[in-house]
Amino acid sequence: xxxxxxxxxxxxxxxxxxxxxxxxxxxxxxxxxxxxxxxxxxxxxxxxxxxxxxxxxxxxxxxxxxxxxxxxxxxxxxxxxxxxxxxxxxxxxxxxxxxxxxxxxxxxxxxxxxxxxxxxxxxxxxxxxxxxxxxxxxxxxxxxxxxxxxxxxxxxxxxxxxxxxxxxxxxxxxxxxxxxxxxxxxxxxxxxxxxxxxxxxxxxxxxxxxxxxxxxxxxxxxxxxxxxxxxxxxxxxxxxxxxxxxxxxxxxxxxxxxxxxxxxxxxxxxxxxxxxxxxxxxxxxxxxxxxxxxxxxxxxxxxxxxxxxxxxxxxxxxxxxxxxxxxxxxxxxxxxxxxxxxxxxxxxx
Length: 349
Known about the structure:
The chain is mainly α. The chain is built from 14 helices and no strands. Helix 4 (97-111) runs antiparallel to helix 5 (126-150) and helix 4 packs parallel to helix 6 (157-182).
C-alpha cells in the first residue's frame, strides 16, 4: 500500500527537519551564517567560545529542540485522537485537551506550586507539579468532550466539534479568571504569553521530560498500530476481531492525555498542529498507523520549528506567540476541513 512511499517520506522530512533546525539556529535578532552554525554545533558545547557559540548553544538550541519535540508530540497525539473518535477534525486543541492542560498548569504556577511566571521557569516542586496538573486537566477535558459528544446517541462530527468548543471555552474562561483573581501584575504578561503558546523559556535542564514523553508515547502508540487501524476501520469490525474497544479506547486516551499534558506544560497551548499534520502525513503514506505515526511526528517537528522561527522573526524585535502563528494557519485549514466534512456527510445522508 503506502509502505514503498514511507522511506522516501522519512528521508525528505528528516532533511527538512535538519534544514529548519539550522535556520532556527541561524536566524534571529543576531544573524549567524549557516556554515558558522554548523561549525559551532559540530564543535560541541565546549568546542567553540564567543558570543555566537553562546547564542547557539545556550539560547537557540534548547528552543529548537523543544519546538521539534512539542511539534512531533502534538502531531502524534492528533493522529491517535482522530483514530479513537473516527473523525479527522479531532485535535488536542479543538477537543479541549490543550485548554485543560493549560488550566491545570496555570493553577499550579499562579498558586505557587511551580515557579512564578512561565512554564520555562519551572523548578523544585513545579518541575513535576506543572506537568502533573497539565496531565490531569488534559485528561479531564478529553473525558468531558467524549462524554458530551456520545450523550444521547451516536457521536457525529457536529456534536464532537460543539462539545469540544464548549469545553474549550469554559476552560479558557476559567484560566482567565484564575489569572485575573490570583496572578500578580508582573506575572500577567508572561503567563498570558504562555497560555497562547511559547517556546522562549526553553532550557537544557527541562528537555528531558518532554523528550521522554514523546519517545515513550510514540513507541507505545506505534506498537498499538494494528488495533488503531481496526478501530479506524469500524467499531463493529474491531469487536468482531476480538478488540475490546472500550478498554482500548480508555487506555489510549490516558496515554495520549499524558503526552499532551507534559508537552503543554512546557510549551503552552499550541493549536492546530495535531489537526493539519496528520492530514498531510496521510496524503504521503496512507492511513496505516505503523507508517503514519513516525511520518506525522517528523512532519510536526518540521512544522512547529518553522512556525516558531516565523514567530520570533516576523515582527522582530518583538516576538509573536507561536500559538498565534499556528492558529493563523490552522484556522482557515479547519474551516476548509469542516466544509469538506459537511459536504461528505450531506452526500452520505
